Amino acid sequence: MKYKFTDVILQTATKVLVFIIMTFSIYVLFAGHHNPGGGFIGGLITASALVLLYIAFDFQTVREILPVDFKLLAAAGVIVSVLTGTASFLFDVPFLSQSFTYVDLPFLGKTELTSALIFDLGVYMTVVGTTLTIITSISEDDK
Amino acid sequence: MTALHIAVLTPFIAVPLIPILYKILRRIHTGWFVLLVPLALLFFFGTYFSFQEPLEPVLYSVPWIPTLDIHFTVYLDSLSLLFTLLITGIGTLVVLYSIFYMSMDREKLHLFYAYLMLFMGAMLGSVLSDNLLVLYSFWELTSVSSFLLIAYWYQRKKSRYGAQKAMYITMTGGFAMLLGFIILYVISGTLSIRELISMTDMLSQHSLFIPAMFFIMIGAFTKSAQFPFHIWLPDAMEAPTPVSAYLHSATMVKAGVYLVARLTPVFGGHLEWFWTISIVGIITMFVGSFIAVRQTDLKALLAYSTISQLGLIMSLLGVGSMSLNPQYSGSSMVFAGAILAAVFHLINHSIFKGCLFMMVGILDHETGTRDIRRLGGLMHVMPISFTLTMIGGFSMAGLPPFGGFISKEMFFTGMLTAPRTMSDWLLFLPIIAWVASVFTFVYCMILVFKAFAGPYQPEELERKPHEAPIGMLISPIVLAALVLVLFFFPNLLTTAILEPSVKAIIPGAFPNGVQWHAHLAAWHGPNTELFMTIGIIVFGTLLYTYYTKWRSIYHSLPVKLTINQLYDRGLVGMERVAGKVTKSYMLGTAPVYLSYLFIFLVVLVGGSLLLLNGFHFDPSNDSDIALYEYMLGFIMVAASIYILFTKSRLLSIISVSVVGYIVSMFFVIFRAPDLALTQLVVETISTSLFLLCFYFLPKVSRMITPVKLKIGNAVIALAVGTTLTLVGLSAQGHRLFEPISEYFKDSYTLAGAKNIVNSILVDFRAFDTMLEIVVLFTAGVGIYTLIKLRHARSDEQ
């Protein structure tokens, strides 16, 4: 955005809120298998946290603290998801077959590990990447 | 998976490795690594080859898409072996040559070699596949790689034009061929060429047999640059010379010939097949040789000569196919000679034409020009090049002691067979063949002597010419040596390749017990063929000497121009029509597009609801509506109505998001937390996106719209609302199918997930999700490029 508005209250609140929303989004991403949530919702929540950051501060500042190319993030997400699918060829099962197992991890106890989570991570990355690609490219368009 | 399958896939495996090697080992020419691939494959296929014994055909099948009858079946017999040896053998030499031709510092070698390997794999797949659809896939892949290679220097306008032209023409033919294949499948129920051959009698009874034949012939003719589809080949010469030597003379353009040979057991013996292929072949031969003479660019000359030689091989296959006709079963051995000539000339042509292309590449590389008006007198400067060009050129002209002489004589025998055994008026075949051969002789002489004899004009050349480096000469030397070997030992390949290939092309002509042995010889005594050759030399020399006297004939006969103009005008015309049609409804304003979408929805959904009498309203199962649900509904309606009357943009955006948030409230009430969460966040983000766009919109609060338009919009809006309400109510009332949700209830045991919605997304229907994120990503990239490209364009202005 062309003009910079400095709203001290918004900025101060954002500094705290962004971390809360981010933490929540990651919780939602991992909890998705058993509770409401998943990669798509988690990705959207992360995106909304970042949008809040963009609104509270100007684009230059956000780019300095978060030097991420969102286009590449989105592409990486698609690749992660597709590769999770092709991994099933190694076990001679149809494309995108998911599997899960239970492992005893230190501190966490009996934990379920699923290949679907990796797939969901790809979805998460694509959603964050695409949403922010669209928003940043529209808002940086100040000609 | 067998070794043969892996051999076909090897070049494809090499493709992604080439850029990596190129990036890591910048100081070594990438070609050296790539060379290993064709070399290894040459040795691999060489193990199937033996001089004394013909190869026992082998067939291995791997199911690929079994439900569609598509199997990756590799069938290797002598005919396929011949092609694989040509592809890998000439491939090796071409890669070796390209190491010296393609500059390491200036060229994007990784792309060049990646495309080249893509082609090699596709070509191997085409000649080894027994399944028609697999063959088709590889076939089209050769067109794609050819497109990429022609457009390798994509900065040049002519390269782009040539690449596009080649792709349009060969792919149109490819589609026709696919249609033919599908018809064959419908008739026979099999996609395997082996099985098709075994049921030939049944096939030929079917009324769709002849259409299938013609569609397949179109595919073969476009690929092998037969008249009138030949126009793409000269423009394909914009590719780097190693590519021209490999794809556009030795291998890819032979794919059409291969297809005709491969399917001769199915179609051969039918008069339609014989007439079309012989006549198209012989016309192509004449047109190609006639136009080749007028060319001043050596590569264009070679391109037309390739067209002409391919026509020669085609016409032989056409005449030879008559050996399968029951009417001529007595002379089937005579017709077999034509097939033998075709196979032998195919080998010869690949060898001498490969050599000649490499020599023209060397000339271009050393002098900076391929124009015969500027070249001349290089005999003393480049003696080795001169010798090699002479060997290749004289072989093409059909002179002894080179391999081309034997196949040319066999060609005449084959052409003379037609009038001798069929009817007299087929005499036009050998006559056209002879005339075309005279022109062939003339352009061969132009090729050899205009460049190397005559006055030396160093001032016309861009560089000071000198003999090419030895590395560049190795490949043409090998090929030139083979040209000589084929003359002095013509029977070297007879048992191993020629005889079994002929038997594979016309199996019906050799019923059990019929003994037939091919014997090739340079000297047959004074017969018609020999006198024809002598006549060619005499008339050819005369025409060559007095070329300036009769050159004007070309200006009165613009044969080539008309077909090319037809193509160009057709292209422009199609663009214009398509542009007009698109402009008539693409008006560039969002309201118009939205009205298209909505009208379509109302007509399609509402219309089918009306026509099929699908409306059904049954409130008996509905639960009671609570007061707070009424309230939420009321707020939603109020917010929607408010949008209609507010003058401020900001307020309308807020009203829209009110509607969205209430929808998510409903999700909460109906206990769909996943949907509610998603809807909430989507609403948040889209509102901020709206606000962003809002910032860029013009300051005017509302456009002043005419009343008529307003009424129209109101009608559309009401219609959409009514339709969707009716659909919603009907959906509640119908239970046509067993709900699939039962299956998902077991998600905990099936997918280890307690959240059904999520397990549907990432497990049960993960394929949908995967494609959805691909769509999402594509949309994001689309928006990004739209915005950035707009900038790039305004920067240019």
Layout of secondary structure:
The complex is a heterodimer of chains A (143) and B (797).
Chain A lengths: L7 H24 L7 H18 L2 H7 L4 H21 L9 E6 L3 E6 H25 L4
Antiparallel strand pairs in A: 1-2
Helix pairs in contact in A: 1-2, 2-5, 4-5
Chain B lengths: L2 H22 L5 H17 L11 E8 L4 E7 L1 H24 L7 H20 L3 H19 L6 H32 L4 H6 L1 H6 L3 H15 L8 H4 L5 H10 L4 H13 L3 H24 L3 H23 L11 H36 L15 H15 L5 H19 L6 H25 L17 H19 L5 H12 L22 H18 L1 H4 L2 H4 L2 H27 L4 H22 L15 H19 L3 H21 L3 H24 L10 H27 L7 H4 L2 H5 L4 H9 L1 H31 L1
Helix pairs in contact in B: 1-2, 1-4, 2-3, 2-4, 3-4, 3-11, 3-15, 3-19, 3-20, 4-5, 5-6, 6-9, 9-12, 11-15, 12-14, 13-14, 13-18, 14-15, 14-17, 14-18, 15-16, 15-17, 15-19, 15-20, 16-17, 16-18, 16-19, 17-18, 17-19, 17-21, 18-21, 25-29, 26-27, 27-28, 32-33
Q: Mind explaining what this structure looks like?
A:
The complex is a heterodimer of chains A (143) and B (797). Chain A is mostly helical and 143 residues long. Chain A has one domain (8-139). Chain A contains five helices and two strands, in the order H-H-H-H-E-E-H. Chain A has helices at residues 8-31, 39-56, 59-65, 70-90, 115-139, and strands at 100-105, 109-114. A two-stranded antiparallel sheet of chain A has the order 1-2. In chain A, a hairpin with a 3-residue loop joins strand 1 and strand 2. In chain A, helix 1 (8-31) packs antiparallel against helix 2 (39-56) and helix 4 (70-90) packs antiparallel against helix 5 (115-139). Chain A is flat. The termini of chain A are close together. The model of chain A has no long low-confidence stretch (mean pLDDT 83). Chain B has helices at 3-24, 30-46, 78-101, 109-128, 132-150, 157-188, 193-198, 200-205, 209-223, 232-235, 241-250, 255-267, 271-294, 298-320, 332-367, 383-397, 403-421, 428-452, 470-488, 494-505, 528-545, 547-550, 553-556, 559-585, 590-611, 627-645, 649-669, 673-696, 707-733, 741-744, 747-751, 756-764, 766-796, and strands at 58-65, 70-76. The two termini of chain B are 57 Å apart. The model of chain B has no long low-confidence stretch (mean pLDDT 86). Chain B has 797 residues and is mainly alpha-helical. Chain B has 33 helices and two strands. In chain B, strands 1-2 form a two-stranded antiparallel sheet. Chain B has three domains: 1-267, no CATH class; 269-551, no CATH class; 740-797, no CATH class. At the A-B interface, helix 2, helix 4 and helix 5 of A face helix 28, helix 32 and helix 33 of B.
